[in-house]
Amino acid sequence: MATVHAKETSLEVGIEAPTFSLPTLDQNYISLRDYCGKTLRKPWKNKVKHVVILSFFATWCKPCLKEIPHLEKIKKNFNSQPVQFYLIIVGEEREKIDLFLENQKINLTILLDRYKKTAEKYGALVLPRLVVIDKEGIVRKQQTGFTEGDNLEIELENLI
Hints:
Blueprint: E1 2-3, E2 21-23, E3 29-31, E4 51-57, H1 62-77, E5 83-90, H2 94-102, E6 109-113, H3 117-121, E7 126-127, E8 129-133, E9 139-144, H4 152-159
Parallel strand pairs: 4-5, 5-6
Antiparallel strand pairs: 1-7, 2-3, 4-8, 8-9
């Protein structure tokens, strides 16, 4: 596990997930409330609420690199389901991210948290940090570090 220097925030299972709006690599902004919450921000764009999986990571984090293929496999298994997967790169410059991506084939949407504000809201002090948010915007799982063989797929089935 790798440590990120950020102030600690308490994120508990059962609370409403903190909102955020972050840019993708091509500068399109994704907001949590586009996909889940009591009311969707743009219901004309997304008529169906989704379960949202957030994985906070950094290019230098070895456990993060093990978690990414695991998440990609799960995404493939839930491809036709209302589930959104996002990798959130914490506190890194764009040049470093671009170099990293030249050597990695990643099929998940990447969001940029350059100033670590979203990571702080989600208590992502140690990476990787996985957060599962249900369709109503409630935190249902939080996990620090990566463990092979976790029950994420079974938990997702129950949330969908």
